[in-house]
Design a protein that fits this description.
The longest helix has 28 residues. Helix content is about 60%, strand content about 0%. With about 160 residues, it is mostly helical. The protein has one domain.
C-alpha cells in the first residue's frame, strides 16, 4: 500500500501513482522473500506489522535509507537479486525507489509548509507566497512519475 494511504488522518483520493507505488512494494516483496527453488514465500516482518503507522514507518525507511533497503534484500534469492541491486542499470526496484523517495520528500516538504501555514500569523503577501510554495511542491510531486515513465523504467511499452 502506498505511503499516502498509510498516513494518519483522512486518506487522500486514490491516484494512479498510489497503484504504481503499491506495485513497487509488491515487486520488492517478491524479490526479497520468494524462494523459486522451494516455491514458497518467506516472511518480511518489517512490512507485516500490527498498525498502519508501523508499516508506514518501515516502508518510509525502505524508500529513504539505503541501509534499510539493503537489509530488506539481504536474503534475496540469487536469481532475483539483480532486480534489487542498488545503483544497477538493470535494477527496476532501486530505480523506482529513487523516484518514490523523491515523491515522499515532496510530501514531507508539503507537510512542513502546511504546518508553518497553520501555525503562524503572516502578512497577506507572505501567506500567498507560502501557499504558492505548497502548490508548486504539490505540482512537482505529481510530475515525478507517470505511467509512461514507470513503464520506461521497466523497459516495457506504455501500450501494454
Amino acid at each position: 500500500m502506498a505511503l499516502d494511504l498509510l498516513r494518519q488522518g483522512k486518506p487522500p483520493a486514490n491516484l494512479y501513482r498510489h497503484d504504481l507505488e503499491s506495485f513497487l512494494y509488491l515487486l520488492a516483496y517478491v524479490c526479497a522473500v520468494w524462494d523459486p527453488e522451494n516455491k514458497r514465500f518467506d516472511r518480511m516482518h518489517a512490512w507485516e506489522r500490527e498498525t498502519l503507522i508501523e508499516i508506514w514507518a518501515n516502508k518510509h525507511g525502505f524508500l529513504m535509507k539505503r541501509e534499510v533497503y539493503d537489509e530488506i534484500f539481504k536474503h534475496a534469492h540469487p536469481s532475483l537479486r539483480h532486480l534489487a541491486e542498488y545503483e544497477s542499470e538493470s535494477s527496476w526496484i532501486s530505480t523506482l525507489v529513487g523516484v518514490f523517495s523523491l515523491i515522499e520528500a515532496h510530501a514531507t516538504t508539503i507537510m512542513a509548509l502546511q504546518s508553518v501555514q497553520s501555525g503562524s500569523r503572516r502578512s497577506p503577501q507572505a501567506a500567498a507566497a507560502l501557499e504558492a510554495r505548497i502548490k508548486k511542491n504539490e505540482a512537482d510531486r505529481e510530475s515525478e512519475i507517470s505511467y509512461e515513465m514507470f513503464m520506461d523504467i521497466l523497459g516495457a511499452s506504455p501500450d501494454v
